[in-house]
Design brief:
single chain, alpha/beta, Rossmann fold, six-stranded mixed beta sheet, four-stranded antiparallel beta sheet, about 40% helix, binds adenosine-5'-triphosphate, membrane
Length: about 260
Amino acid sequence: MLSTRGLTIRFGGHTAVDNVSADFHAGQLTVIVGPNGAGKTTYFNLMSGQLPATSGQVLLRGEDITGSGPAARTRQGIGRAFQLTNLFPHLSVHENVRLAVQARAGAGMKLWSIWSSHKELIERAEHYLQRVSLGARRDTPVAALSHGDKRKLEVAILLALEPEVMMFDEPTAGMSVDEVPVVLDLIHQVKAERNKAVLLVEHKMDVVRALADRIIVLHHGALVADGEPAAVMSSAIVQEAYLGTAQAAAQGAAIHD
Ligand SMILES: Nc1ncnc2c1ncn2[C@@H]1O[C@H](COP(=O)(O)OP(=O)(O)OP(=O)(O)O)[C@@H](O)[C@H]1O
């Protein structure tokens, strides 16, 4: 579904992502891990188009999209849950999701088609709100939501856009303990549909264990491990560089932080 080939970005003399090649398949959830500053977010930014690559390629279904900006990539099927930067704070929860549903339906500027299918758009937005357990908050302005509810709303918006590639940046960061299972269940459901490539940047080992089909490890911008979770997590490089000791790993310590 999505591939990178020799993907590299340099900031001045610093190579933040260094020649990374990887393939992300439909029905597979890949977690990208690594210490602070390893290049995980920058790699995400290169794939979603927020940053231009210094060299290398990003391919979507085999097509080279390296030259496309972020909006074009979203239209082409790469969806990303940002950390609360793509919400309209003064619109209601329902309106935020409805805009995403409209964008997906291509109804954005065509008033006639908005009116002709208005009821359907509302129902679809309602459906996504129910999926993230935000139905009761439908009329609340986004600015008044708790942090956890904002994160759930982001997931609803991402679902509404129906992308083929779904990228999550620490989806449970800042959530209370009782909110985390809602989001993890949703990501499980998306994965179970088996038609999307799901990518996650995640620090929490329990989340990694619960969700990962595959783990990629970045270190100083380079890909240093790529494989099944058990093999990658028990590999010497991960044990020593990221978990400190095998005992820390067994105790479920975070990779960092
Ligand atoms: N716009 C930029 N200009 C200069 N340096 C940058 C820029 N963006 C990222 N970097 C540098 O690139 C490196 C990788 O940063 P990045 O945020 O991708 O790491 P990360 O693995 O996501 O870290 P964290 O786990 O702390 O979020 C860091 O050394 C960072 O300082």
